[in-house]
Amino acid sequence: MKVHTGLLVFLFLYILSSCSRKLDMENIERPDTKIAERIEWYTDLLTSSPGGWIGYLYPAFGGGVTFKFDFDKNQRVRMIALLNTQTVHNVKESSYSIRAPQVPSLYFDTYSYIHQLADPIITKYGGERLVGAGGDFEFSFVNASPDTIRLKGNFRGSDLLLVRADPTGAENYLRNVYTFTSQELVKVDRFKDYYKKLNYNGQDYMIIINVDKSTFSVYYNRSGKLQFFTTEFAGMENGILLREPFVDGEFSIQRFEDFEFDFTQNQLQVLLNGKEKIVINSLSVPPVIDLDGPAQIFSKYNRSFSTYGFNYDGQRDYHQLSSDPSFIGAHLRQRYYINNLDRFEFYYYDNSNMEQMFYYNLRSSINTPGVMKFDVYANFGTVPSNSSLLTAVNKFKAFQGDAGGFYVFTSGNDVYDFVSVDDSKKWFRFY
């Protein structure tokens, strides 16, 4: 009987290969086992910080909010948040879990402060009606180290940065943040003039720190072209942390700390990125002019909102619209491409606590590049019987009819600042 050597070699190699594959399969870790181990690692990490975690949440629709979280092994999390005075001082507890329907994710399971940023009822935190402020309460883990965890919202895509808190000062950290943002940071708008300029290595940068929407914007010229950058920021104990760093060549801004205001010299000194002191000057002349600024109002927006009036000479809400208890807010409704006639609407509560609205028409024009002018007309609608509110509105209207018009600068996504061409101490903001 003749034996085929080639066939024997083939059978030998086949049997050897099969055994090898069997051994390999026995050594391969199952995917669900690896996921379970990862979930356990994230849980141990979250619960391992004696001082808890400082959270910087940047909602999808803009702004930034600082949190303090304490996670325990019983799947409970205690938190305070920089939403208002109550949420800073009153601890809220929620259940949490880490699950992986697709990727390992952190879930805040029961309603808490973090849910308020996603609440469609805008009285909970603000934002847009029916959708809220663009927050999330389910987050995928992006990357993690012993001291820092980065997460991404599963629904809106908001960013959440967790930083391990120093246990020695963790208890008072958020209260210190609240004190800084509510008492110190707001002084940015108390300079008499609107414009702020930073010069670094011979390059001028126009800086806008928007305390209303927690946004940070930069205008500058590079090679003869106007450049623009905007991002959100969250409050720190003595400064602000940008969601995305501003980078221009070798110069970058990630955070400002140690704010020192000198209103006599019209200067603000800050610590840049924890390394060096720099000076920001308040000016009466714009470092740059956004020639496309006014046109963006018409092309991007149909209606913009404000809860207060003009800033003037370093005084917020100069005509005290927001101090009137009946005042709700104001809308600038752009109708330029419909009939070339815009509308300025004021909403208020009447004596029966019913919401009412009255308005005046205005004609917007851009006859000079970069400058928007308003011709204002008579009041229409249900004019308030409250004489103080009507007086404040009429004063606002007189300011808006400034003969020289207004420069328009973007101070956040769909946030616009109108600055008087004739008087840089006079400006108002809509978003």
Count of the separate structural domains:
3
* Estimated helix fraction: 10-25%
The total count of strands amounts to 25
Spatial order of the strands forming the largest sheet: 17-19-20-21-22-23-24-25-18
What is the CA–CA distance across the termini?
94 Å
Strand content: 35-45%
CATH architecture of the largest domain, please? Beta Barrel
CATH fold label of the largest domain: Lipocalin
CATH class of the largest domain: Mainly Beta
Largest sheet: 9 strands, antiparallel
Protein name: DUF4302 domain-containing protein
Organism: Sphingobacterium paucimobilis HER1398
What does this structure look like?
By secondary structure, the protein is of the alpha+beta class. The protein folds into three domains: 41-168, Beta Barrel (Lipocalin); 184-283, Lipocalin (Beta Barrel); 293-430, Lipocalin, CATH 2.40.128. The chain is 21% helix and 42% strand. It contains eight helices and 25 strands. The protein has a nine-stranded antiparallel β-sheet, covered by helices on one side. The chain has an eight-stranded antiparallel β-barrel with strand order 1-2-3-4-5-6-7-8. It starts with a helix and ends with a strand. The mean pLDDT is 87. This is DUF4302 domain-containing protein. Pfam families: DUF4302. InterPro entries: DUF4302.
